[in-house]
Design goal:
CATH topology: Rossmann fold
Low-confidence stretches: none
Mean pLDDT: 95
Helix content: 40-55%
Strand order of the largest sheet: 3-2-1-4-5-6-7
Strand content: 5-15%
Shape: globular
Length: 263
């Protein structure tokens, strides 16, 4: 039995019948979030930008449970037409408005340059995916998520916005932009029943985290955490899962740092 199926057979299903889009869901934190939302009963749209095989594997794991289903949709979140087509595909696949958007798609410059050594091209790429992509996802969700209850916008940002580490300026700034947008968006959605929040992980042991880092950099991240370890994707997914359910209705316009005390 798959982990999604096993979880669905033993846990409450507060998202039963609801549709969730998770961007960047083919690996890392996004994958863990998608599987967790499925275990809570949601039907999933697994968004990816390049690796169809990984996305298909996530969908297959969810579809191995008869309780709910998943489809994969390729879309670049920095392209407004493709973000629109992502929502179109979700509505068509499940004959339902989307209830939950989790935007986990993001990029990090693994060269870890200082501001002085950051190229304009790398700045543009980071902001196109992280900040512009989040804006486009928020914009589409604000216009298309189900009104009247159950609508949830959840953006994955970073605890670096609080940590302000050297050589992470552009990535951190792109995530700070998202947090500001979401706080305002929550107020703009007054009367819709849709909430908007951010989850800001600390260092999480994913492929993206390890890319380009030396052993010393990894050790430093571990030493800076009071719990003495890197986070895991399973440390983040349940926080997102809670925000996706009706139990989180009174949490709105917030940034929840899931980082083990890192910041």
């Amino acid at each position: 039995m798959s982990s999604a199926a096993a979880a669905s057979s033993s846990t409450p299903r507060p998202l039963h019948g609801r549709v969730a889009i998770v961007t960047g869901a083919s690996r890392g934190i996004g994958r863990a979030i998608a599987l967790h939302l499925a275990s809570l009963g949601a039907n999933l749209v697994i968004n990816y930008s390049s690796n169809a095989a990984l996305a298909d594997a996530v969908a297959a794991e969810i579809n191995s449970s008869s309780a709910n289903s998943a489809v994969t949709v390729r879309a670049d979140v920095s392209d407004p037409a493709q973000v629109k087509s992502l929502f179109d595909a979700a509505e068509e696949a499940f004959r339902s408005p989307v209830h939950v958007l989790v935007n986990c798609a993001g990029v990090l410059d693994s060269k870890y340059p200082s501001i002085a050594n950051t190229t304009v091209e790398d700045f543009d790429r980071t902001f196109n995916i992280n900040a512009k992509g989040s804006f486009l996802c928020c914009k589409e969700a604000a216009n298309r998520l189900k009104r009247g209850g159950g609508g949830r916008i959840i953006m994955i940002t970073s605890s670096l916005v609080g940590g302000l580490k050297p050589n992470m300026a552009v990535y951190t700034a792109s995530k700070a932009a998202i947090e500001t947008m979401v706080r305002i968006l929550a107020k703009e959605l007054k009367g819709t029943g849709i909430t908007a929040n951010c989850v800001a992980p600390g260092p999480i042991a994913t492929e993206m985290f390890y890319e380009g880092k030396t052993e010393e950099m990894i050790r430093r991240s571990i030493d800076e955490c009071p719990l003495g370890r890197l986070g895991e994707t399973k440390d983040v997914a349940p926080v997102v899962g809670f925000l996706a359910t009706d139990a989180s209705e009174w949490i709105n316009g917030q940034v929840i740092r899931a980082n083990g005390g890192y910041v």
